[in-house]
Write a structure and sequence with these properties.
By secondary structure, the protein is mostly helical. Helix content is 69%, strand content 3%. The longest helix is centred in the last third of the chain and has 28 residues. It starts with a helix and ends with a helix.
């Protein structure tokens, strides 16, 4: 399925802002470290996480400099606090990818069609680039001109989503399942991916709503949507690992089975995993209903996430 036009538009804005943000660091960050950060952060990708944040922001009535954005409007000025949050989540996501690819983790040589960071530079530099990107994400949030209480809320929620109660904790559970110390059943797989993948995706949706000063119903809709999309995203990834080629994925295909990972496909089989993806798709679409027409783009993202080929 082709990416929706608005997703490409968001990606272009985010790419430009990421590049400008790194350029501004040239005088204060060591050249080799900055080069390794730039290599991974600007390697492309779908930029789905920033898109989720930006679309939840607009769906909840977020205001641009020129007024309220509606799904029919293709261009608008993104206020600085919203873009800062979008850049922050890409920094966190990229740091996690660098660490995922390390020899002590997934030991992968390919990411987004290019050599992984530790292959392009070296393992120590890759670790430090990831560390720098992780802390940069919190720097970006702390420096935004959102209100102090909102900044603290976003930072706290991101720390929970990215740390031991979220992504990092999920990675540990994933490694335990891989080693055989955990029984690989459906509940184990769901627990892993609600933490490893789902926590950050849910943060994107909740952050967008908070930045838009959403009411309780809007915030809950975005939160439910984020949880369903988080699981859908991982199920789709697990399916692609066994159905797509390395050239299509831009990373090594078949690694999940090779490393005995706990995946939806390994536990349920391919057909049942596809059925579960459809269930998650329906839950995510249903979560958008309280947002009315302003949630149309979020529904489009659901279909794209399920049907994408990479």
């Amino acid at each position: 399925m082709l990416a929706p036009a608005f997703l490409a538009a968001h990606a272009a804005r985010v790419e430009a802002a990421l590049a400008a943000m790194l350029d501004a660091k040239a005088s204060v960050v060591t050249a080799r470290l900055l080069a390794s950060m730039r290599y991974s952060l600007l390697a492309g990708g779908k930029r789905i996480r920033p898109a989720l944040l930006l679309e939840c922001y607009t769906a909840c009535g977020g205001q641009s400099a020129s007024g309220k954005h509606t799904p029919a409007m293709q261009t608008f000025v993104i206020p600085t606090p919203v873009m800062q949050a979008a850049l922050a989540i890409e920094c966190i996501h990229t740091y996690s990818l660098i660490h995922d690819d390390l020899p002590c983790m997934d030991n992968d040589d390919l990411r987004r069609g290019n050599p992984t960071c530790h292959k392009q530079f070296d393992e120590a530099t890759a670790v430090l680039a990831a560390d720098a990107l992780q802390t940069l994400s919190f720097e970006l949030l702390s420096e935004s001109n959102a209100g102090a209480e909102l900044r603290c809320t976003l930072i706290h929620k991101l720390a929970l989503a990215a740390g031991g109660q979220g992504m990092v904790g999920g990675q540990v559970l994933d490694m335990q399942a891989e080693s055989g110390s955990e029984n690989m059943d459906m509940l184990t797989v769901e627990r892993i991916h609600l933490h490893k993948t789902g926590a950050l995706l849910r943060w994107c949706c909740e952050a967008g709503a908070l930045l838009a000063n959403a009411d309780a119903e809007q915030f809950e809709a975005c939160s439910r949507y984020g949880k369903a999309v988080g699981l859908l995203f991982q199920i789709a990834d697990d399916i692609l690992d066994v159905t797509a080629s390395s050239s299509e994925l831009g990373k090594s295909a078949g690694k999940d089975a090779e490393q005995n990972k706990a995946t939806y496909v390994s536990v349920l089989g391919l057909q049942r995993a596809r059925e579960l993806a459809t269930d998650m798709q329906e839950l995510a679409v249903a979560a958008c209903q309280p947002l009315g027409r302003d949630g149309d783009h979020l529904q489009s993202l659901v279909h794209y996430i399920q049907e994408r080929s990479w």
